[in-house]
Amino acid sequence: MPFSRISSDLIGSENATRLAALQEDYEFLGRKLARRGLSIDRIKERVKAFTVAIPSWGVGAGGTRFARFPLAGEPRSVWEKLEDCSVVQDLGRNTPCISIHFPWDWTDDLKGLRQAAVQLGLHFGPVNSNTFQDRPGADLSYKYGSLTHTDRHVQEQAIAHNRACIEGGVALGSKALTVWIGDGTNFPGQQDFTASFDRYLESAEKIYAALPGDWTLLIEHKLYEPAFYSTVIQDWGTSYIAATHLGDRAKCLVDLGHHAPTVNIEMIVARLARFGKLGGFHFNDSKYGDDDLDAGSIDPFRLFLIFNELVEADLRGSGVASLEHMIDQSHNVTDPIESLLLSAEAIAGAYARALIVDRDTLHGAQAGNDVVMAREQLRTAYETPMGPVLAMARYECGGAIDPVAVFRASGYREDRARDRPAGGGATSAGIV
Ligand code: AFD
Ligand code: MN
Ligand code: MN
To answer: 351-369: buried (b, 16+ CB within 10 Å) or exposed (e) per residue?
Structure first.
């Protein structure tokens, strides 16, 4: 059976069985919020306006350093990735944007790809470059680094790839380039910390110079891995230095998994937002390292605290409304479409909870050092079940009240398992 979108009839009939209960829950929650002086409808409208991009690699099966287990029916090309992304969007209605990855998603027909996306109600967000792997047949290797390589020719090859990503992104209608490099060292003494960062700045300047005027360069930091002793862009401080060095259109991207386990990420968010250098997120969750688990699955409170800082920053006029919100996950043991649906819901839910924090009481308590009252404001908002707001927003936008249930009822994965025979594999390395 060739690809066809989840039928609106199926969504409609599945919704019909759940609508009465949703209306009841929504009204109940509405009364509860009204007692706190909040309009549930206004919160719902803000939730409707919130979107998060799907990484093209997220619809394929991921992997670990040890193995990659293929998924029946996984997409074999960027065209099939678009199909899966459209399923997520049709059911969840808050993921109309795809963050693409070159060279994994390269096609000579970018114009056609853009048209195909438009037909599916999708568009392209930030483009991700990849200089952490060698391309088959490439002249030079990134084994010892890319943008920071000691050999100028390797550096130039990596810069040229980023320029090609910008060109490809222009053809797709993207407005940002996300650069994450794996450059670093495994042993003390292997490289000169200062010289390698200087080489990074030199390379990044050339990439920045190639950016169209309305584009943003997003610099993604990561503590370690694949380099295990030192990483060139290892933390938000280094990312901030680089972004500041480059100019106004260079910003920092915070991938939640790219920090040591106890790092206070919400505070990093506050700092970057305050100085106009927060550019966006890669949402995921983790317990130990860059686990790339589903957003909100391990530490949903942290996700809420991050959105709490974003709402605070918005009130200060930091312009965080224009942030690039993206998911960056590796789905090894779940159906990627189900994980993405639930992750997008968890992210929007964290935002919805942050919106209902009683800011006046919180700020008053902070000013008066009323510690208990201050933390109670956050706890009260966090413990308010916002599911009915999210479901009603989805329903009113034409999506599914229960997206995972409709996805399972549609038989989409079984159909794809038939028409996308195993063995083709995903176009990514799998280990993302
Ligand atoms: C790797 C990195 C990083 C990046 C992604 C896509 O850890 O998260 O965003 O590849 O390039 O997972
Ligand atoms: Mn990332
Ligand atoms: Mn990562």
So the answer is: bbbbbbbbbebbeebeeee
